[in-house]
Amino acid sequence: RPHSFVTGVIHPWRVSAFERLLWRACRGYLVASFVEMPEPLEDPDTGESVTWVIFLISYWGEQIGQKIRKISDCFHCKVYPYPESEASRADTLSGLLGQIQDLSVVLEETEQYLAQVLDKVVLALPTWRVQVQKMKAIYLVLNQCSLDVTEKCLIAEVWCPVRDLTQVQDALRQGSYKSGSSVECFVQRIPTVESPPTLIRTNKFTAGFQSIVDAYGVASYQEVNPAPYAIITFPFIFAIMFGDVGHGLLMFLFALWMVLYENSPSLRQASNEIWLTFFEGRYLILLMGAFSIYTGFIYNECFSKATVIFPSAWSVATMANHSSWSSAYLATHPSLTLDPNITGVFRGPYPFGIDPIWSLATNHLNFLNSFKMKMSVVLGIVHMGFGVLLGVFNHVHFQQRHRLVLELLPEMVFLLALFGYLVFLIFYKWVKFSAADSQVAPSILIHFIDMFLFTSNADNLPLYQGQVPVQMVLVVLALASVPVLLLGTPLYLCCRRRRRKTGHPP
Description:
Layout: E1 4-10, H1 15-25, E2 30-36, E3 41-42, E4 49-50, E5 53-59, H2 62-74, E6 78-80, H3 86-143, E7 146-147, E8 154-155, H4 165-179, H5 207-216, H6 227-241, H7 245-260, H8 265-268, H9 273-280, H10 282-299, H11 316-323, H12 327-332, H13 364-397, H14 401-432, H15 444-453, H16 467-501
Antiparallel strand pairs: 1-5, 1-6, 2-5, 3-4, 7-8
């Protein structure tokens, strides 16, 4: 009996159910072969890449063939015609191979054409991008303009710096001439009581620092801009916290590379947001690296290791000769103490930074942390005091002299009475106590805590006579300045508003 064929493709996860149903429905009157494709193809329905399974079913009888075709439709198989004779199959195969070759040629030529088009687009893309950005900016401004009564011209109310007013007038005049307009555009200054927006001109060096200041708040019109001072204070305070010659050098070289190649299109046009953040702050990173190198030399740390630039000022030999350390003593004492009170053991301060011998001491961290903490406190309070004093220029410029008394004065009293006094204690203890009487030197921390508790500690000797009364007066002054800070300006403005309502001059 002649046999027929059904061929097609099916999803791989449907093969088992498809084969089992064919076998049961046709009662075994068929021969089925399944082979996976060597390469995955795209599913036209879902767009997913699927490794299809090719099947070839040989059957006998028309009724069995109808069952096979219906089952194939139910399983969403892609069925293709299969010639009966060998010659027809060979002709079909050769025809398909010819079509594949023709399509490959067409696709290759299309890719070449697209590559040529893209090469031309790459050259014109920067110009197009600038044109689109200009058009977008122009139409954005036009959308914010309003029509006049005749609906034939646009009116725009804008803020413009006085120094740029001539450039704006020249640009409008040139635009009117190039557009062929019969009516020339003009600028008219109008009076207003509104406060102008703040315009701070920056360049590629100051833009990063200005962004940091603006993150905390934009200064009002004609207020003092603290960004120029932040150019030094911000990277220097960073270096105080992370002072290391090695790490600072890596930061400095990385930032220097970005600065030297800042005009490179690959760096400026990168789409990575994190990279753009680093690139925009390249000058900030450059200064942070430079200051970190400086403070790293002061801390004498290079990748957390001390370096010997100058000879150490401590003499172990002198200490050994004075103490008569024997070999047996050294064998039983892995840690030795150098006494600076012995003549010749300590010959003076290190020429620059921390003596490298401190890196070998067991109390190295205690000494270095105490040094960093005191230096951070002193510089931080000086920085805060400088920021408060900047407000003097704002108060004087805006003729708000009441804020000098009700805000600036209590702020300075609070700052100096508490933290300024702490700086005084640090320097006073440093000047008064030397290595000879270091064992009886009192703790500044305990004194500062007792200052707020209005108590005294008998085990912690006072730094000077009358210290407790002075500290009590300072705490009272600091506490008294708090209500003045909170209520002084609001009460003054309320009283002035009432006097204006009643007709009295302020």
